[in-house]
Amino acid sequence: MEQKRETLLEIHGLSVSFRMYDHGLEQTDLQVISDLYLTVYPGEIVAVAGSSGSGKSLLASAVLGLLPDNATVCGHLYYRGQELTPGRQKQLRGTQIALVPQSVTYLDPLMKVGAQADGHRRPLPTARRKGFFKRLGLPDQTEQLYPFQLSGGMARRVLVSTALLTGAGLVIADEPTPGMSLEQALEALRMFREMADQKKAVILITHDIDLAFEFADRVAVFYAGTTVETAPAWDFKQGPGRLRHPYSQALWRALPQNGFEPVEGFQPYAGDLPEGCLFSPRCPRKTEQCIRAVPPVRQIRGGEVRCFYGA
After folding, report:
1. What is the DSSP secondary-structure string of the chain?
2. Rounded to two decimals, what is the model's pTM?
């Protein structure tokens, strides 16, 4: 009998909506994530790809419990088999689950970056932090600087170092490489790879799909606030014939080295989502079934796809 694989993070049916004020004082709920699923195993990097507004950064906030008060979260999130309640999220945040935020404004403007990276841990991880700074090309004097004295790329390298210093079992890296040189970005991803090889895991949220393919084990494709496909990274290297969802195939063809071929139409706005399959208004293979019903998640060829006709 095949033994069930241990999971680190499981997300089932995650939906996130925000209570908004419409015309006048009328309130409305704006759903931005719908029935999203994702599983992360120890020892892997899962890249999360998709266009802007597809829900990638909101996923990070939902897992860490960093959504604003007007957010409503439905569904189930589990870390090491236990449900991520708000109390447990607070307990694990920054210790077992660490974030490399997309915005460099997360750095405290009143503290020198060396002290920020070391944090309140005892003993202070100063020697390890210096090693991380050096690997990422940060000069020795960086630790004595304040955030306003850093370039954007330097600040991102500090944030990567800070997350790795936590020793967390899961790091969620939200667009960690913009502003870095190619070699610096590669070194940051090598550090994530080393972390995953120690039976930890990384969720790599990125627009730089080419770099993700080289370091990730699997790629999850988001569209309009849901997961449409999760597949081995190798499938994305092989081409659209290996991919299961029409949007994943279109995403591959839109890459510059693959013809830079755009897909017609636009990703729907969160307040005006179509019925049925969210990609159906843009899908060349849609049928009446796609327009009327939401497709289930199916397992096909070692991956998962939300499509009636994915193969």
Report:
1. -PPPPP-SEEEEEEEEEEEEE-STT-EEEEEEEEEEEEEE-TTEEEEEE--TTSSHHHHHHHHHT---TTEEEEEEEEETTEE--HHHHHHHBTTTEEEE-S-GGGS-TTS-HHHHHHTT-SS--HHHHHHHHHHTT--GGGGG--GGGS-HHHHHHHHHHHHHHTT-SEEEEES--TTS-HHHHHHHHHHHHHHHTTT-EEEEE-S-HHHHHHH-SEEEEEETTEEEEEEEHHHHHH-GGG--SHHHHHHHHTSGGGT--PPSS-PPPGGGPPSS-TTGGG-TT--HHHHHSPPPEEEETTEEEE-SS--
2. 0.93
pLDDT tens, residue by residue, 69-104: 999 999 999 999 999 999 999 999 999 999 999 999
